[in-house]
Amino acid sequence: MAVNGIPPAPPGPPSLPAHPDPATDAILDSGLLHELSHAFGGPFHFLLPHRFDANLAALRAALDEAGVDGRVYYAKKANKAAVWVERCAARGAGVDVAAPGELREALGHGVRGEDLVVTGPAKSDELLRAAALHGALTTVDSLGELDRLLTGARTRSGALRPARLLLRRLPPAQPESRFGMDGAEIEEALGRCVRAGDAIRMEGFSFHLSGYATRPRADLAGHLVDLCLKARAMGLRADRISIGGGLAVDYTAAADWHAFLAAQRPAHYHARKSFAAGDFYPYHSPVAGAAALRAVLDAVPEGGRESLAARLRGTGTRLLAEPGRALLDRAGSSVFRVQGVKDRAGYAILTVDGTSLSLSEQWFGSEYLPDPALVTPAGRALGQGAHPACVGGATCLESDLLTWRKIPFPARPAVGDLLVYPNTAGYQMDSNESSFHDLPLPPKIVIEAAGGRGTGGGRPRWRLDRHLAR
């Protein structure tokens, strides 16, 4: 309310802190990041493979607790780094690939062909051929793709193993999706698989479902189990289903997320840029990661009488899951150096040594919201101060802002400070990266403790990631 006729000052821009992560904090406090920034002369991403291992173990535990025969495949599109594929090879996890380069990367880092699932729409003949030659499981998205796979399988008949495939079902609840086949097309595909005989091995069904809700996944999974039973009656193997990915990641606490959504408005963004709440990724999810997989397994599919887990067990059906983001939760962060500070009315504009092309959410008409940490040469800036600043990239584009939001930093950022965006391994690091202005792509740095596990127990050690396709 007004005091002596003077209206109160508008509240400052809200913060959105990420969940605390001791492993990341240890790196921020180690002094290593400033050394790496100096060494590489630009932005970089650091990766924490022990977090990937923990996420994989948690998903496997969810399957084991439900008594479900299942397999976790890492969706490689979520992050190009080789270290994740190396972890899959070492720990017996599968890898989901959707392009010839991804398939070559997976094979080159030790994943067996039979441990690959090949997804994506309208796959090239090159990809279909390579998948069949290496014994990979291929999700077939259309009747035309099935015909091309069958033609290649018949050409190789008698010389090599049969082509392994899943038929992808168009979600009845999302008929506008461009992925999968409708009921009539599935019927026709089953007939073609039967007629193909030993040239193929039809192993089941899959789907691609948008969003992060667990109930629709359980409902559609139950439908796929019914399709498996129908296919088995036709003489096909059909002993597994794939529910794809879509397991959410929980970035921030519920109270912080809801407070942010309630407070944020155009005045809190540079140039009064406007975002609706629906424009943002749901940075808080009450059911995420392994808990989301448990929720899918515990749910009773529409029209059923028992949980999906019980249905899978009772029918001898294997469950495949292809998470990307969920396996990368807290497995990496992105580091940018402040190289310019410009004052505006009530806030500052920071310019960093990279671009928003290396923080992908901005290029989907959205914003990556978890607060970046401010790391000075003396250490992390902590405290209750509020020094609002947006963050721009080092290009001549007005739209090149890593963060339109006026972030309330605890201290005034200065040239030479580092901004560390937390938990960016899932999709943020490289799905839209570009060497615009001939700026180098940020390298990926793998960080481990001296013993190779976690980052505790002394100064962490690092190496460059071994991604082949540079």
Structural description of this entry:
The structure is a single chain. With 470 residues, the protein is of the alpha/beta class. It has two domains: 22-48 and 330-464, Lyase, Ornithine Decarboxylase, Chain A, domain 1, CATH 2.40.37; 49-250 and 285-325, Alanine racemase (TIM Barrel, Alpha-Beta Barrel), CATH 3.20.20. It has twelve helices and 18 strands. It has helices at residues 22-28, 32-40, 49-65, 82-91, 100-108, 125-133, 143-155, 183-196, 214-233, 254-263, 289-298, 308-315; strands spanning 44-47, 70-75, 94-97, 116-118, 137-140, 163-168, 200-206, 240-242, 318-321, 332-344, 347-352, 373-376, 379-380, 387-392, 401-409, 418-421, 444-448, 461-464. Strands 1, 10, 11, 12, 13, 14, 15, 16, 17 and 18 form a ten-stranded mixed β-sheet that branches. An eight-stranded parallel beta barrel has the order 2-3-4-5-6-7-8-9, surrounded by seven helices. Helix 3 (49-65) runs parallel beside helix 11 (289-298), helix 7 (143-155) packs parallel to helix 8 and helix 9 (214-233) packs across helix 11 (289-298). Mean pLDDT is 93; it is low at 5-9.
